[in-house]
Amino acid sequence: MAGHSQFKNIMVRKGAQDARRGKLFTKLIRELTTAARNGLPDPAANPRLRSAITAARNANMPKDTIERAIKRGSGGGADANFEEIRYEGYGPGGVAIIVEALTDNRNRTASEIRSVFAKGGGNMGETNSVSFMFGRKGTIRFPLAVATPDAMFEAALEAGAENVESDEGGHTVTTQTEDFAQVRDALEAKFGVPEFAKLTWQPQNTVPVDETAAETLLKLIEALEDNDDVQTVFANYEIADDVLARLSA
């Protein structure tokens, strides 16, 4: 499994599930607020907001919570001013990690992320210290049910996409950054609002990680994801399926 922050522990205790749900809602609310603040509060005219609303609905966020977040962002108050920041560093096994955050306190977040890296056996570097090992790509994801793999491939190719991968998890369309908006809009017009549509960091090469380093690395990534300010984590690791299965057991 290649590293795109896909590892998730199975939560069996309700308290842990509720805590995870609360953290997810916090992240989604920040994205809703930021999307509304940086564009129009009308999702029909704001693709980022449309995508954020879809993600919130998929997480079963109540409608009134979504509406409050959008209103807060469109109101332009100081408390709605989240800054988008990228942190970079290395994890166990020499794995490169990119962390995207939305924060209202740059100093607090930098301190917290640096601490997580240090406690997790890694170290936070300077901006651009690892991003050169990744490519900036547009990523658009649709549920499998919206189209057959052939139909999605043909539509994405016609719209100008770079690649399409379809599996039981859905259809994932990759674009160059300059083509992202036109491909997203064309596919949305044909198949409806995507589950996910953002610019992402994709590793140019992956780093094989053994079981010992993998266990520490995945704990580090999980700790980064647990931070309320962190929106997305990208990493260039490669973990064998059998190793991942043992660690996830």
UniProtKB/TrEMBL annotation:
Name of a matching Pfam family: TACO1_YebC_N
Location of the protein in the cell: Cytoplasm
A molecular-function term among this protein's GO annotations: DNA binding
Keywords for this protein: Cytoplasm, DNA-binding, Transcription, Transcription regulation
Domain TACO1/YebC-like second and third: residue ranges: 82-237
Keyword field contains Glycoprotein: no
Keyword Cytoplasm: yes
Any one GO biological process: regulation of DNA-templated transcription
Domain TACO1/YebC-like N-terminal residues, every copy: 5-76
A single Gene Ontology CC term: cytosol
InterPro entries: Integrase-like_N, TACO1_YebC-like_2nd/3rd_dom, TACO1_YebC_N, Transcrip_reg_TACO1-like, Transcrip_reg_TACO1-like_dom3, YebC-like
Main location: cytoplasm
Superkingdom, taxonomy of origin: Bacteria
Residues of the signal peptide: none
Family recorded in the similarity comment: Belongs to the TACO1 family.
PANTHER family: TRANSCRIPTIONAL REGULATORY PROTEIN YEBC-RELATED, TRANSLATIONAL ACTIVATOR OF CYTOCHROME C OXIDASE 1
Name of the protein in question: Probable transcriptional regulatory protein FRZ61_39440
Naturally occurring in which organism (per UniProt): Hypericibacter adhaerens
